[in-house]
Write a structure and sequence with these properties.
The complex is a heterodimer of chains A (204) and B (210). Chain A is 66% helix and 0% strand. Chain A has helices at 9-14, 17-29, 33-55, 61-80, 88-106, 135-148, 152-163, 168-175, 179-197. The longest helix of chain A has 23 residues, at 33-55. The chains are: A mainly alpha (204), B mainly alpha (210).
């Protein structure tokens, strides 16, 4: 690995997750433990708060911290062992969702609904969607269903505009749609999402 | 839906500003289907959000530091130290941290000071509590709760060699090995700081005097 080039922090910061993982792997192969360590620390530090927030949706804080930590360890180690599928962040989210569902399932006999924890600042998710142990991912599944009904271009537009919060003009330029179209597609998506969430018609 | 739009916009702006806003604060301002929709949107936003910007100072005091050490050890296949081993054994024993702390406090005869025991145990899992100060009573009690040999727990602590900053930590990557050298602050916010001399009690003795 003679051609490995160690990058400064500001350049590492600009790498995507998958590029950063490749960098860490190359650094390890080159025996450059400091460079590899920095990359790994940036990866873990960068994702920790969002993963913890997501795990906290249905789990009390001390459990969420464990679940989030275990999910990150599992996602990164499997990525290095070539066991992950697709983009790292998608793999990470799949593991988080699965671990949260597993945790809720294991707690089922005694699990309390979120309302029972009012005042504990434990959950941020709604109890309204919790029907069983899969409730933790139910809201996410609804969103995935609504997204899955879109064409690739429309999905791209919705993800950028609705989920990432980018301005319509910017999304229009990136997707080749008109600004007006972006708004219309987003509006239809939101209506459909609410339909699914309300337990109404689930067919497109 | 207008409320959802506004709240989502506020949430995203706050998150991008780096403040790690609590979704509950936003969800508490809407009800019914609006709440569900906002929850779905915030969750999806978080799932897609890019990594937060690197901040070495914040990293050093974040749970991410111990987590990175766990990943390093897992990748290296090296013998694990407390930050990797204790959470893993606890998970395998299906004992939640709060439950373990309660049982540990009871075993140590310190039930009335469970919060302090919790802070010290947290330091063990984070790798910020020097292993040499932890008494055999604590190690034996932990061994009983986790169903593991006390010697294995002690050896894993010794691998910390004075905390994650120790040169003999066995960490693969030197940066992490120097991330959190200070025990005085446990690498954590104020509630986890070490006791002032006048507050020193039997729990401090058990976890810090060896």
């Amino acid at each position: 690995m003679a051609d490995f080039r160690e990058l400064p922090e500001h350049e590492l910061q600009r790498l995507s997750d998958d590029e950063l993982i490749a960098y860490i792997r190359d650094a390890r192969d080159a025996g450059l433990s400091v460079a590899a360590g920095l990359g790994l620390e940036m990866l873990v530090f960068g994702h920790w708060p969002n993963v913890l927030r997501r795990a906290s949706r249905k789990l009390p804080p001390h459990v969420a911290e464990d679940v989030a930590g275990n999910a990150i360890v599992s996602a990164i180690t499997s990525a290095f062992h070539g066991e992950s599928m697709g983009q790292f962040v998608n793999w990470l989210n799949r593991i988080v969702d699965r671990r949260v569902a597993d945790e809720l399932r294991s707690r089922k006999p005694t699990v309390a609904l979120p309302e029972e924890h009012e005042g504990e600042d434990a959950f941020w998710g709604s109890a309204g969607a919790v029907a069983d142990e899969t409730g933790a991912v139910e809201v996410r599944m609804a969103l995935e269903q609504a997204l899955g009904e879109l064409s690739d271009t429309h999905r791209d537009a919705v993800e950028r505009f609705v989920l990432d919060g980018f301005p319509a003009a910017e999304v229009a330029e990136a997707t080749g749609l008109s600004e007006n179209n972006v708004h219309q597609i987003a509006s239809r998506f939101r209506k459909r999402l609410r339909e699914i969430l309300s337990g109404g018609d689930t067919s497109p | 839906m207008a409320d959802v739009d506004r709240l989502m916009d506020e949430y995203v702006k706050a998150h991008r500003a780096g403040s790690d806003p609590d979704p509950a604060d936003f969800l508490g301002r809407v009800e019914g289907i609006d709440r569900l929709e906002l929850e779905a949107l915030i969750d999806a936003y978080l799932a897609r959000a890019p990594r937060r910007a690197w901040d070495p100072a914040s990293f050093a005091t974040s749970p991410a530091a111990a987590l990175a050490a766990r990943v390093e050890q897992a990748l290296a296949g090296e013998p694990e130290s407390w930050p990797a081993l204790l959470p893993r054994w606890r998970n395998e024993a299906k004992v939640r941290r709060s439950e373990l702390v309660a049982r540990l406090a009871t075993a140590l005869g310190a039930s009335a000071k469970e919060a302090k025991v919790a802070r010290y145990y947290h330091g063990m899992e984070r790798g910020t509590l020097p292993a040499e100060g932890v008494s055999d009573r604590v190690i034996d009690a932990l061994a009983g709760i986790l169903g593991r040999p006390a010697s294995a727990i002690r050896e894993a602590g010794e691998r910390l060699a004075g905390g994650p900053g120790g040169a003999g930590s066995g960490a693969v990557f030197a940066r992490t090995a120097s991330a959190d050298p200070a025990f005085s602050d446990f690498g954590s916010p104020a509630p986890e700081r070490a006791a002032a001399p006048e507050d020193w009690d039997e729990v401090d003795e058990l976890f810090r005097a060896g």
